[in-house]
Amino acid sequence: MRLEVAIARKAFTNAAGERQDVLADFNFALGAGEVGVFVGPSGCGKSTMLKIVAGLDYDYQGHVAGPAGARIGMVFQEPRLLPWRSVDDNIRLAAPKVDDEKLSELFAVLELTAHRNHFPAELSLGLARRVALARAFAIQPDLLILDEPLASLDASLAARLRDQITTLVDGRSVTTLLVTHDVDDAARLGNRLFLLSPRPSRVLAELPIRTPRSARGEAEIAAIKADIARRINGDRTDRDAS
Ligand SMILES: Nc1ncnc2c1ncn2[C@@H]1O[C@H](COP(=O)(O)OP(=O)(O)O)[C@@H](O)[C@H]1O
Ligand SMILES: [Mg+2]
Question: Which domains are present in the chain?
Answer without folding.
Answer: 3-71+143-149+174-241 (3.40.50.300)
